[in-house]
């Protein structure tokens, strides 16, 4: 299934809801939580993270780990609201799709 920006943004926010994480950990969490279904390349995830940061939905800080600098992303209160609203909209959309796909008696 192709991912639109909205679905990817929502999944990234959901991953960051649990705790702040660096890019590779976010990619690994998407892969693990989808049982390998969303094994996304860095070239897809990092632009989305930058987009979310520009919206104020996430914030990043730079830390040093074993002498390497890593950017760690965390959810903001604005991002929490976007996630809550996105989940509500997603559930409504899924329900509407299920209704259309249901086999009529």
Question: What would your notes on this structure say?
Answer:
- This protein is of the alpha+beta class and 105 residues long.
- The protein is 61% helix and 17% strand.
- The chain has four helices and three strands, in the order H-E-H-H-E-E-H.
- The chain has a three-stranded antiparallel sheet with strand order 1-3-2.
- A hairpin with a 2-residue loop joins strand 2 and strand 3.
- The longest helix has 25 residues.
- It is elongated, with a radius of gyration of 16 Å.
Summary keywords:
4 helices, about 100 residues, about 60% helix
Strand order of the largest sheet: 1-3-2
**Rg from alpha-carbon coordinates:** 16 Å
The biggest beta sheet is recorded as: 3 strands, antiparallel
The helicity comes to 55-70%
Number of helical stretches of at least 4 residues: 4
| Series of H and E elements | HEHHEEH
Secondary structure: number of strands: 3
Mean pLDDT: 92
- Uncertain regions: pLDDT < 50 for 5+ in a row? none
């Amino acid at each position: 299934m192709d991912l639109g920006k909205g679905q990817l943004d929502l999944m990234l926010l959901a991953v960051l809801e649990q705790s702040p994480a660096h890019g590779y950990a976010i990619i690994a969490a998407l892969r693990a939580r989808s049982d390998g279904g969303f094994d996304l390349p860095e070239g897809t995830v990092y632009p989305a993270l930058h987009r979310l940061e520009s919206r104020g939905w996430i914030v990043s800080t730079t830390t040093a780990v074993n002498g390497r600098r890593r950017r760690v992303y965390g959810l903001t209160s604005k991002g929490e609201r976007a996630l809550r609203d996105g989940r509500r909209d997603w559930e409504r959309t899924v329900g509407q799709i299920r209704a259309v796909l249901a086999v009529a008696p």
